[in-house]
């Protein structure tokens, strides 16, 4: 296997892992499968540019210098997710997981159509940090600088999150809430704080995915979050619903599988790569319906 | 209680049997009123609404009885629409639009009725195979898997160009769907849905929806009943998809993707997923709202001023309405109740007071 393929697999898998983590965090604290996550990503992309129906986008926030821009977009993603929680999901706090899921699907459609009204339906060219596409020599492989940055950033984010969940008080509260929400509340964990915190983190992770996607593809499209959200969903199911480590591992595995399929499928079958990927996942689930890393609390006790 | 009296259970069964009759009469009245007083545009709206009743009542057979939300039923409509196109289009048309069809389909020139039945059967067969894998998962994970199934079908249909025409449209489907055809399918679907709901399998499935653990402790094999409901449900969604194709005359894969999924879900949620009457009322309510909003998007003139909503506001408002219903009336407009005749109309002599 060539070194090139390893980098492809790591960077794609890293992005999938970040997206899956964004979904698993929220599922963990409030049993919500967030179908609006893809639209959090799309909205974060469009936050970079000014509303217009033109084919080439004019930068809004995107014109800021890089450190400010990254901070602003992360804050935007976090703010959007926290607002969604306060307006839509808080009134539904005691609803069934099915109702929550349907509400998030409706929220996703709502956000998508708001983007359509504001920006028009055509994909737009966005040039964000074009210099990151230039290749770098790493041992025997030519790797785009962006791929290296993505791999580094993903490693940093995962390490940071792991540290926060293990050491910080808010991390401890989040893990407790994911384990048993009612018990955590009885022991003095503030529900609103933990849930808002999880949404803020999830939204910021969506913004990270958005930045990588827009730099990689150079377009802004209202549908751009959908595909990656689907892969992230699948990663959370394969990883075992509610298991953060499982979601990350499954995200990385899906990225690797996807890179391998892209490299080894015959050319005429490549457009169907995703169909093969989903088919593979269904096969895995046939043998382990509870996911690969099912958490102990996944099956309700009587 | 003497043997000649009707038991409370029998009364319930009879009341339940009146539901599809009343719903069918409601739809019949709707069609008669439209054909008597409406113009061409409202006749089209009526056909479209009845197709949606077929789709949503078909969807309800699975989602309503099992309590599992499926995002994959638009894919069954997609398969149904294309199967009907493959079997009914003129062979010369297929030779240019869909050169990759196998000879058996390329030469087929069927009547539209067997084509719509086969469309339903093809969707049901696909449901049987994919459901066997998907429905082993628990509720929420199964929902996610149906979403993956929807995306998978969409990816295949958008890229399998020689057979499906890819993302470009397949045109020239015979436009035979009048309000009466729509009514026929809608009533057939309602009958099938209430028969299934009253069957042993339907009851077992609803029991497992209410309490999974208790149902399985009583010996109910949830997976088998879910699969049965999924397959029957896919049949009617497939047929409904075929009707959609023959209503507009043009099909492409994106017509059967997220927007259709959203519309079907919105109708089910607004009316109330707990009952078949809820599904029908949801279709009527949301269709009416869509009709009004579409006209407002085209522009309404008020005293010389033309006022138009921007395109896309239809979805925004329906999505907002759906969230509001979920927050303020989580069980939907009908809150899980069925429309039935009152008990004393269906009992024999003097049994109402036991």
Describe the 3D structure.
The complex is a heterodimer of chains A (302) and B (354). With 302 residues, chain A is mainly alpha-helical. Chain A has one domain (3-224). Chain A is built from eleven helices and four strands. Chain A has helices spanning 3-30, 37-46, 66-89, 97-119, 145-167, 169-179, 181-186, 191-217, 224-238, 244-264, 273-287, and strands spanning 124-125, 135-138, 141-144, 219-220. In chain A, helix 2 (37-46) packs parallel to helix 4 and helix 6 packs across helix 8 (191-217). The longest helix of chain A has 28 residues, at 3-30. Chain A is globular, with a radius of gyration of 19 Å. Chain A starts with a helix and ends in a 15-residue tail after the last helix. Chain B has 354 residues and is mostly helical. Chain B has one domain. Chain B has helices at 8-37, 40-66, 73-88, 91-97, 103-106, 112-134, 139-159, 161-164, 179-198, 200-210, 212-217, 222-248, 258-271, 276-298, 313-328, 343-346, and strands at residues 170-171, 250-251, 300-302, 305-307. Chain B has a two-stranded antiparallel sheet with strand order 1-2. Chain B is globular and about 65 Å long. At the A-B interface, helix 4, helix 9 and helix 11 of A face helix 6, helix 7, helix 13 and helix 15 of B.
Listing every helix as H and every strand as E from the N terminus to the C terminus, the arrangement of chain B reads HHHHHHHHEHHHHEHHEEHH
Question: What proportion of the residues of chain B form beta strands (DSSP E)?
Answer: under 5%
Mass-distribution shape of chain A: globular
Instruction: Work out the number of β strands of chain B.
Output: 4
Q: Domain count of chain A, please report it.
A: 1
What number of domains of chain B?
A: 1
How are strands sequenced across the largest beta sheet of chain B?
1-2
The residue-averaged pLDDT of chain B reads 87
Radius of gyration of chain B (Å): 21 Å
Query: Helix count of chain A?
Result: 11
Helix content of chain B: over 70%
Q: Stretches of chain B where pLDDT falls below 50 for ≥5 residues?
A: none
Structural class of chain A: mainly alpha
By oligomeric state, this entry counts as heterodimer
Mean pLDDT of chain A: 83
The largest contact between protein chains, plus residue counts on each side, is:
A-B, 47 and 44 residues
Gross morphology of chain B is: globular
Strand runs of chain A, count: 4
Order of helices and strands of chain A: HHHHEEEHHHHEHHH
- Termini Cα gap of chain B: 8 Å
Distance between the termini of chain A: 49 Å
């Amino acid at each position: 296997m060539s070194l090139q393929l390893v980098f492809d697999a790591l960077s794609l898998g890293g992005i999938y892992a970040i997206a899956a983590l964004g979904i698993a965090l929220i599922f963990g604290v409030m049993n919500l499968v967030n179908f609006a996550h893809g639209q959090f990503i799309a909205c974060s992309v469009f936050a970079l540019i000014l509303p217009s129906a033109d084919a080439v986008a004019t930068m809004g926030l995107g014109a800021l210098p890089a450190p400010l821009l990254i901070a602003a977009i992360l804050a935007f993603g976090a703010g959007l997710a926290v607002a969604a929680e306060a307006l839509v999901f808080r009134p539904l706090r005691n609803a069934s997981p099915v109702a929550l899921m349907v509400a998030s699907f409706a929220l996703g459609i709502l956000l998508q159509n708001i983007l359509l009204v504001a920006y028009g339906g055509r994909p737009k060219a966005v040039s964000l940090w074009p210099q990151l596409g230039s290749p770098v020599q790493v041992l025997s492989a030519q790797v785009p600088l962006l791929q290296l940055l993505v791999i580094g950033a993903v490693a940093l984010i995962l390490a940071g999150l792991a540290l926060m969940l293990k050491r910080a008080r808010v991390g401890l509260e989040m893990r407790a809430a994911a384990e048993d929400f009612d018990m955590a509340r009885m022991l003095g964990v503030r529900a609103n704080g933990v849930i808002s915190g999880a949404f803020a983190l999830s939204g910021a992770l969506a913004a990270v995915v958005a930045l990588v996607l827009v730099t990689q593809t150079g377009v802004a499209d209202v549908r751009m979050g959908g595909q990656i959200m689907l892969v992230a969903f699948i990663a959370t199911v394969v990883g075992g619903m509610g298991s953060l480590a499982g979601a990350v591992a499954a995200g990385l595995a899906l990225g690797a599988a996807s890179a391998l399929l892209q490299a080894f499928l015959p050319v005429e079958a490549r457009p169907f790569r995703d169909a093969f990927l989903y088919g593979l996942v269904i096969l895995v689930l046939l043998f382990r319906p509870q996911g690969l890393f099912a958490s102990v609390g996944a099956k309700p006790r009587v | 209680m003497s043997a000649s009296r009707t038991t409370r259970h029998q009364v319930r069964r009879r009341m339940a049997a009146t539901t599809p009759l009343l719903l069918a009469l409601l739809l019949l009245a709707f069609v008669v009123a439209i054909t008597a007083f409406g113009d061409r545009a409202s006749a089209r709206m009526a056909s479209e609404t009845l197709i949606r009743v077929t789709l949503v009542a078909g969807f309800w057979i699975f989602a309503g009885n099992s309590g599992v939300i499926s995002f994959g039923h638009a894919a069954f409509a997609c398969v149904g629409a294309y199967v009907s196109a493959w079997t009914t289009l003129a062979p010369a048309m297929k030779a240019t639009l869909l050169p990759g069809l196998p000879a058996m389909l390329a030469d087929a020139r069927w009547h539209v009725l067997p084509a719509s039945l086969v469309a339903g059967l093809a969707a049901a067969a696909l449901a049987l195979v994919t459901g066997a894998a998907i429905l082993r998962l628990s509720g929420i994970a199964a929902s996610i898997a149906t979403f993956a199934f929807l995306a998978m079908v969409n990816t295949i249909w958008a890229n399998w160009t020689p057979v499906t025409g890819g993302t470009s449209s397949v045109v020239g489907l015979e436009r035979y769907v009048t309000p009466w055809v729509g009514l026929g399918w809608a009533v057939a679907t309602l009958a099938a849905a209430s028969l299934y709901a009253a069957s042993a399998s339907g009851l077992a499935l609803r029991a497992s929806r209410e309490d999974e653990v208790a149902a399985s402790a009583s010996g109910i094999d949830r997976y088998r009943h879910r699969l049965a409901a999924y397959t029957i449900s896919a049949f009617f969604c497939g047929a409904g998809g075929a009707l959609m194709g023959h209503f507009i005359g043009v099909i492409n894969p994106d017509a059967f993707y997220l927007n259709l999924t959203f519309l079907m879900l919105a109708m089910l949620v607004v009316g109330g997923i707990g009952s078949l009457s809820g599904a029908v009322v949801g279709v009527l309510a949301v269709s009416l709202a869509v009709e009004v909003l579409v006209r407002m998007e085209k522009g309404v003139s008020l005293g010389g001023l033309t006022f138009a909503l921007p395109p896309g506001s239809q979805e925004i408002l329906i999505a907002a309405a759906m969230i509001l219903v979920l927050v303020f009336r989580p069980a939907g407009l009908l809150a899980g109740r069925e429309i039935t005749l009152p008990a004393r109309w269906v009992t024999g002599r003097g049994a109402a007071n036991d």
